[in-house]
Each structure stands twice: as C-alpha cells, then as structure tokens.
Amino acid sequence: MKIQLAAISHDVGKVLQIPAGMLLLSLPVCLVAQEWFALVPFMATLLGTIAVSQLLQFLGRKAKTASQGQTLISVALGWALVSGLGALPLWLTAFSLGADASPTMANFGNGLNALFESFSGFTSAGLTMTLHPSELPVSLQWWRSFMQWVGGVGVITLAIALLEPNQGNYELYQAEGRQAHLRLTISRTVRRIWFIYLGCTVAGTLLFLAVGMSGWAALNHSMSALSTGGFSITDDSMKPYSAPIKLAIMLMMVCGAIAFNSLDQIIERRQLSALWRDHQHRLLAVLLALGIGLIGLEQFVTRGQFEWIDSAFQWTSALTTCGFSTQSLQSWSSSSKLMLSLAMVLGGAAGSTVGGLKLSRVLLLGRVVTWQLQKTLLSPRQLLPRRYNGRLLTPEQANRQVEEATVLAALWITSIFISVLILLKVVPAEYSLGDIIFEVSSALGAAGLSTGITSPSLHWIGKCLLIVLMWMGRLEIIPILMLIGAPCSQLIRLIRK
Question: Which of 78, 122, 124, 174 has the fewest CB atoms nearer than 10 Å to its CB?
Fold first, then answer.
C-alpha cells in the first residue's frame, strides 16, 4: 500500500480541531476557579494545537480521496496526536506550580505520567497516574473528565458531527470501530448520537444530584460513568459514597454499555422492548445477573460475608469497562480477579461507549460453534440457514462477519499473551500472574480497574506498554497495526529496489 501523506495530513489536521475546541471550552473553568497557574498551560496548548492543526491541513490541501487503509492510519495517528496534546495541560501545569505542587500534581512533572493520563482519558480506559484526585486543581479535574467524555463516543465521531461533511466520513466513522446507522447519512447519525449522549449526561447529573452527590461531583461522575471511563474526582473512587449513589452510578454505567441505536429507539419511539430484541442486550442482562451472583458468592466464601452492593458494583464496572471501584481489588481472591478479567475482555454492547471485544462478536463466535455442530447433522446436499440476531445471513455475509470476529479475537489473545510476558519482567514480585493478567485485560479492554500495578512508580516500559494497549483496545487493534505496518512495508519495498 502506497502511503498518501497528504491525505493523512489533511485528516489528522481536521481531527486536531477537536482538542482545540475542548481546550477553548476549558478556559472558562480556569477563570471561574481563578486558577491562574493553569490558564497559561491551557492557552499555550490551545495555540500549539491550532498551529499544528492548520499546518497539517495546509500540507494536505491537495489530498486525494484516501483508501480504507489510509483512513485507518489517519485514525490511529490522529488519536495518538490528540492524546499527546491532551497531556500538555497536565504536564505544563505541574511545572507552573513548581514547588507548590502537591505530590499528586508533582507526578505529572514526569511527561510519561502526563501522557499516560491523557491516553487513558481519551481512550476512556480509566487507568490513572493520579494518586489523590481530590488534590488536583478544579481545571484538571474537569480536563480529565472532559477527555473521557469526548473519548467515550470518539474523537473522530465528534469531528464528523461538527466539521464539514465529505465523502471520507463513512471510512473515518468505521475506522473508529463503529457501525450503527441511526439516520440516512453518517453526519446525521453522529449528530444524533451526540444529542443522545448529551441528554443522557444531563439526566445522569440530575440523578446523582437527587441521590445526594454534590453538583461538581455529579457533573464529573456523570461524564465518566456514561463514557464508561472511570476517572473520579474523589479519593478511593466510589468507596466514600452511600449505597443509593452507588446504585445510581451502576445504572449510568449500564446505560453507557447500551448501543446508541437501541437508546435512539427507546427515546424517539418509546420502545423499551428494543433492548430485548437485540440479542447482545439480552446477553448483557444475563451476564450482569449471573456475574453478580457468582462474585457475591465468591466474596462470601472467601470473606465470610455477603457484600452484595460492592460485589454487584465491581462486576458491573468490569463488564461495562467503566473502571469505578468501591474496594481495593488487590485483596480479592484469584478466582474473583479472573472473573473480572473475563468481564473486561467481553465488554458491553457494540455501538456503545464500552471497550472490550464486544458482546455482538462474542455472540457471533458462539453462533459459529452452533452452526458447526448443526452442520455435522446435515446430509451433504442440505444447506444450513445461518441466522444471527434475528436476521438470515447469506453465506458471504456469514463468512465475512465470522472472519472479522475471529481475527479480532485472535489479535486480542495474542496481545494479552505478549503483554503479560513483558509485564512479568518489569512488575514487582509482590504481584501475581493473576494480577498481571488482570491489569493487561483492563488496559486492552479500556476498563480501568487496577490491582495496584498501574502507578507512578511503575517501570517506564510497563507504562509504555499499557499506553499502547489502551490505544489498541480503543481502536480495536487493526488501525494500530496498519500504522506500524505501512512504514515497514514501504521500507522493505525500498530495500528491495
């Protein structure tokens, strides 16, 4: 594949307008909070982002229509640059505070920690380098939540909603891992998605206020819960809150794990049955109920008491890949960690804000097993009708969908295996193999739960690995492989010449 640098430059430059807009909207937060030490870092990042965006669009002004492979590269590179720029307010503010910085802020003086936090935010993963979120300036509490809120639906999706429509929108939309069509055009679809997303965020904020959360906490946690991100502004995540608040947060996490096309039908047509008609939402309900029961029983066996609310909360947080926590998971049993790891790998419904493999693919892979068993009972001349989610698939459709799901599942397994081997070399011996598998699953599944491995003290190799895993998990691996593979193939081609 020949790399069209102009097309990539144009697309990435267009995407960078999104963090520029985010930074502009964040300036009033600095002013209202009177955090003058943060105002200059935000302004400097804003000006730098605008400059880079304009330069890239200028270099790509004569770009031709890009191929699907080129679009995948643009999306992967765009997400990386957005996350890199998103780290600057954290890093520069730490320098601006200097000796006045709290230990939490001082950690962001290390650029890799700031980069980790930004990648975790924009990928809505939730793993964090923040020791005590309550010590952060208000502007940076907002910035962390804002990154997750935008990243939950997708930077590219927001770019399509706000910027000029063009023929490449469909490729960009698909390259970010989305398939749903709520309206006739992609631009109208993403605008509808953002309308639903904003409405649910407002509803979540009001719900949290009603159950006793403060206004600032309600806004930030509504953004993090719906985006299934998991950043919090309180120490110990959700542990300090009451049972009604925890139940409200669970409701919002589940809402974030529901596909937008189903939410659209519920809101516009008032058809609550739309959830039950979609097989992946049925599976989500079954997994929620089954997992809560199993985790609760496991906690009773290992701890001698039923901790139903905390057990239900942790399972819901894992399955929806949100990352909020009510307990220290390091003390949980190995079997509980293994179940949570599986939940983070599975994820919620495709077309929602969750990470993970997605339940639609899990169902499809399960259906393949059923088809294969049924096929053995048929005579050679009989044809097997292949139905999936209530639709009859042609052989070509079935083969294509099965191939895509199988390839992605294989890439997931390979990525987890290689990552565990690497982390084993750099993680302190106090952490078990189960802890490492848990951490890798959390990063690749963009879940954000941690056994304590993710911290400012983690070896730089471990931090870089988790950054790559969060990036890969958010974009479903293939765009990252395209970004890495394209220059390598170009280099091989030049060597052969």
Answer: 174
pLDDT digits (tens, 9 = 90+) for 38-51: 999 999 999 999 99
The string over 400-437, giving b where at least 16 C-beta atoms fall within 10 Å of a residue's C-beta and e elsewhere, is ebbeebeebbebbeebbeebbeebeeebeeebeebbbb
Distance between CA 76 and CA 253 in Å, rounded?
A: 26
DSSP state string for 180-220:
--SSSSHHHHHHHHHHHHHHHHHHHHHHHHHTT--HHHHHH
Give the DSSP per-residue string, 338-394: HHHHHHHHH-S-TTSS--SS-HHHHHHHHHHHHHHHHHTTS-TT----EEETTEEEP
Partnered with residue 388 across adjacent β-strands are 391
98 burial type by CB count under 10 A (0-12 exposed, 13-18 middle, 19+ buried)? exposed
Question: E strand or H helix at 142, and its extent?
Answer: helix 138-153
Which pTM value belongs to this model?
0.90
What one-character DSSP code corresponds to residue 102? -
pLDDT tens per residue across span 425-434: 999 989 999 9
